[in-house]
Amino acid sequence: MNISTNPGKWLLPVVIVALAAVVLLAVALSYAVRAERNARYVGMMNVVAEKLSMTFRGVEMNAENVFDEVAKHMESPQAVIEALGSKTSLNPDVIGYFAAFVPNYFPQEGRWFQPYVHQGDSTEFVLTLVGSARHDYTTSTWYVQGVKEKESFWSEPYYYEDDLNVASGYYMTFATPIFDAQGRLACVCGADMTQEWMIDQLRQIEDEVRNDELLNDYRLLGNDDFFIVILNDDGTSFAHPDGDIVTMSDEAFVASLKKHHRGVTELEVNGVPSRVYYTPLRRTHWSVAIVVRK
């Protein structure tokens, strides 16, 4: 029986097999890590989106109570004002409630009538009549949209600055058109929320998901560097937990946001290569995105 004493004849095949096994193991591990990462952040994205939607729904339900009161009391300007102020205690996070009437709806009030019951310098709500030639609310985006809509909606964010007794800043408005007994549009009612409120809600939710044991119970992943952001449908950020400005201008990504799609993509976010998990928020122009830096 001849046994080769030359190790070169069997060592090379062994090395090749070993290297192939290592490569296969590395590939399998890479796929496993990627699958686990996707599972983690898709799950986290869904949880964040649901928490935000529930938060928005709480605002909507309280605002709808106010809108219903206005719809029941449109017999006079004073009745409308009293209706706006009747439910302000339901949600102290709402900065103010308004009813923007179509021009000349109440002839005695002239062309513009927009009573606004809002938070003042103290915890008390105050009344300001904000409609005027200088503040023609009929050109505001939320009013223009409200004239076209038949149901409630969230407006796009906008910046309000005026010397009236109303705080300047970025707002978003939950609004609904109100129709009179003859089916004619009477006014657009709205509840204003501030950008600061949105950032606070997002910060609280991000803290919750970062510390959620179930969402973070994974075997292969380390501590990824990620953040959560609420995006307008043009790819710009509206709310970031740290107040940072984020822009994602990739054309395909922006087109996906405008179509209210959900997905995962790889982008440079503020110059950093990142994987972005995103999904739309119901009844809004926004999407929530989890940005995982590579």
Helix content: 25-40%
Shape: elongated
How many beta-strand segments?
A: 12
Rg calc: 27 Å
Low confidence ranges: none
Judged by helices, strands and strand pairing, the structural class is alpha+beta
Explain what this protein looks like in three dimensions.
The chain has 294 residues and is an alpha+beta fold. It has helices spanning 8-72, 77-85, 141-148, 195-210, 251-258; strands at residues 96-101, 115-119, 125-129, 153-154, 158-160, 169-179, 185-194, 225-231, 237-239, 263-269, 272-280, 287-293. Strands 1, 2, 3, 4, 5, 6 and 7 form a 7-stranded antiparallel beta sheet that branches. It has a 5-stranded antiparallel beta sheet with strand order 9-8-12-11-10. The termini are far apart. The model has no long low-confidence stretch (mean pLDDT 86).
In short:
By secondary structure, this protein is an alpha+beta fold. Helices cover 36% and strands 26% of the residues.
Summarize the SSE layout with pairings.
Blueprint: H1 8-72, H2 77-85, E1 96-101, E2 115-119, E3 125-129, H3 141-148, E4 153-154, E5 158-160, E6 169-179, E7 185-194, H4 195-210, E8 225-231, E9 237-239, H5 251-258, E10 263-269, E11 272-280, E12 287-293
Helix pairs in contact: 1-2, 1-4
Features:
294 residues, alpha+beta, five-stranded antiparallel beta sheet
